[in-house]
Structure formats: structure tokens, C-alpha cells
Amino acid sequence: MSLALNDTAFAQFRPVEGRVFPESFLLLAGEVLLGTFVLGPLGVLLMLAWWNEWSLADRRISLAGALLGALLAGVGFLSLLLLGKVYRRESLIIGKDYFQVVVGADKVTQQIPYRNIAKLSLMRGHENPNLIRGFIGIDLANTKDSETWCPAAETSMKLHGWHCRIEPGLRPVPLEQLYELIMIQMPPRSRPDTSSQ
User: Fold this and answer.
1) Domain residue spans in the chain?
2) 107 close to 123: Cβ distance less than 8 angstroms
3) Among residues 132, 108, 125, 119, which one has the least CA distance to residue 20?
4) In whole angstroms, how large is the CA radius of gyration of the chain?
């Protein structure tokens, strides 16, 4: 798919009115600052100490320490890449007819009509040892629906077993609350049975 086609597709969807759950500016900025000004420099210091055979706290740095330093320096570099995300944070919008994932003020990266949700499930991390954190899994009734914008639905299904996954990310709101808000908006016939949960 060409970049121009992607831009056109993104432009056809506009953010809807509804409850907005943005990523936390403080959490995101804290992550960037920690990586950039603490972990990255510490990693570079460990690599330099190993290379130059310096002693830190009266101990020489081993090769394992240098490898840890390389890992920390990489984390610091990746934190710099997140800097742009501080200004173009992701938000989840729970609207009347759709939920959307929006980047910045107006770039809709996902739009799912509630009527097109075939299956909605809250996957909790403590219930599955393979999960570090939980997520909300969504299967679509029709991936080609004209009001649905979920460009990686088929790939996500192959990799994760769901057309769409809502991760906790850096939103200061519990996944359970987001799950309930989405479920309430779904048509009654499509709502999951919660009697066993």
C-alpha cells in the first residue's frame, strides 16, 4: 500500500465526540527522561569503563557489565525516539457509535463501530502466565466494513489471535473500566456474557 493511499485513508476518518483517554504526559515524559538522562548515560559509562579498564566502586567492569551497558545505551537511544510521542500522544476515544485510537489531535489510526464487534474479551495478566499485562481483545464481524478502520486486523489476527488489541499503554485508567465502557456501547445481542466473569 502506498504512502499516499495511507494518508488518504487516514484523512477519511475524523475523531468523534466521546470520552477521551489520553496517554499520561507525565508518565511518557518520565519514561523519556529516565531513559535519556539516566539509563543511556549509565550504559555508555559502563561500556567506557570496560573498554578503558577503569574501576568503578573499586571493581573492574566485566564483559557482562559492558553488554549490560550496551543494552542500557540502547534503551537511552530508544527513549530519544519516543520524544516525538510526547507531543503526539495516543488517545482512546469511546464515542456513541465507535471507539477510536487517535494520535495527536486528529489522526485516527483505528476506528471500530460497536456493531462490528463479533467478540470482546478482557484478558487479564494474572489469569494467563504468558501475559505480563492484560489487554482487551476484539474480533471484528467484518474486516472490510466501510466504517471500520483497522489496517492491521488480519496481521494482528495471525500474530495475536485478535483483530485488534487495546493495551494498557501509559493511560492512567484501568483496562477493566475501558472494557466496561466499550461493552456498554455494544448492541445488546453482541455483548459478551459476563455471568461467569
Assistant:
1) 3-23+89-190, 26-86
2) no
3) 108
4) 21
The DSSP code sequence of 142-195 is: -TT-TT-B-TTHHHHHHHHSSSEEE--TT-SS-HHHHHHHHHHHS-GGGSPP-T
Topology annotation, domain 3-23+89-190: PH-domain like (2.30.29)
CB neighbours (10 Å) of residue 10?
15
Give the cell for residue 19: 470520552
- Tell me how far apart the alpha carbons of residues 146 and 154 are, in angstroms, rounded to a whole number: 16
Q: What is the pLDDT of residues 74-126, one digit of tens each?
A: 988 888 877 777 677 788 889 999 999 888 888 898 999 999 999 998 887 65
Determine the average pLDDT of the residues in 19-32.
Answer: 80
With cell 543511556, the residue in question is 40
| All three cell numbers of 132 | 505480563
Bridge partner residues of 124 (DSSP): none
49, 92, 149 from 21: Cα distances, Å: 44, 5, 19
Task: Work out whether the CA dihedral 68, 55, 51, 43 comes out positive or negative.
Answer: positive
Whole-prediction pTM value?
0.66
Distance between CA atoms of 84 and 196, rounded to whole angstroms? Answer: 43
* Arithmetic mean of pLDDT over the chain: 82
Amino acid letter at 14? R
With 0-12 CB in 10 A as exposed, 13-18 as middle and 19+ as buried, what is 31?
A: middle
